[in-house]
Amino acid sequence: MTESAPLGDGTRAVRAGLPEPVKHEPTLPGPVFAAHFHLPGDPTGGYAYARDENPTWTHLERAIGELEAPGADDAETLTFASGMAAISAVLFSQLRAGDVVVLPDDGYQVLPLVKEQLIAYGIEVRTAPTGGDAQLDVLDGAKLLWIETPSNPGLDVCDVRGLADAAHARGALVAVDNTLATPLGQRPLELGADFSVASGTKMLTGHGDLLLGYVTCKDAELTAAVRRWRKIVGAIPGPMEAWLAHRSLATLQLRADRQNANALAVAEALRARADVADLRYPGLPDDPSHKIASQQMRRFGCVVSFTLPTRARGERFLDALRLVDDATSFGGVRSTAERRRRWGGDAVPEGFIRFSAGAEDPDDLVADVLRALDESAVAVD
Ligand SMILES: *Cc1c(COP(=O)(O)O)cnc(C)c1O
Prior knowledge:
CATH architecture of the largest domain: 3-Layer(aba) Sandwich
Bound molecules: pyridoxal-5'-phosphate
Number of domains: 2
CATH topology of the largest domain: Aspartate Aminotransferase, domain 2
Structural class: alpha/beta
Strand content: 5-15%
Strand order of the largest sheet: 1-7-6-5-4-2-3
Largest sheet: 7 strands, mixed
Distance between the termini: 74 Å
Radius of gyration: 21 Å
């Protein structure tokens, strides 16, 4: 027997999670709308009540698992109503009063709220920046290390393997927020993490039309605790969202490749501008994140960040864009950008822009960005 070559990302994405072919059945079975399933006699496993399990999730969970941990039969994926539901499920199923958790201090903007809640439950929270692997310095005695790389919105990258080894040596578990990278950009479990956790709302599904989250884990006991938390809290995805997500996964490689190439093209165009400061994109060879990103990532994501001189300039730039929506979130097929400071949370300057490259033609997108920069340079009263 000859070993067949491993399948490429595009092939894996289009086939991910599909059930065995059944004559006269669709390739991807439609959403199963059910609260309960026929269940005569003793419950002996299988679908019973739809807060616990739903066949539409099963297909999606297999699909995400095949992308996050290809070939790992021991990996299990659980889907959630949102990325925050997935994040909370890991944190709150693992941590107890008296435990120590290490979070990034430059991560997703809801993490400070999570931190408050953890503290209210008697958990000690330490924070450190993503860049420079600074979380290493506060690991002693920790039960769980939470990594977000690349970080949102600053786009710093840390060494997942190095941090995971250091955490494991101290008996701590490691979770990586894989939202920005997607499983086609980086595979945290292969880099040593215990949990890969993400929002599927962003590039994973890519159309800006649903919220979703997931956790992938190879340890049966840890997975059981997360599953139990999902049952208790009930933060489950609807079957329609799960099905739409699965349908969208088929184009993940196409979207990611186009969007990442567009992000690089935008970053390269911005680099030549004197009015753009602190440009960050891990795919730029001279970016501070590039070296470690190229060691652990296979794609660098669709988000570019940069700073314009003032708040007013940032607002005029966003107004002047025609092909880019002023909207929060990222990862969708339509480019979006926002002045991140408007939320008040992230520690970024007033003119800081988070730009998410969509799947437009690169020339159109770059031209729109450069035109909006020129037009916004001149204040019109
Ligand atoms: C959006 C986001 C989340 C939260 O996901 P939701 O689906 O909005 O709940 C978590 N982490 C990162 C890095 C994100 O960008």
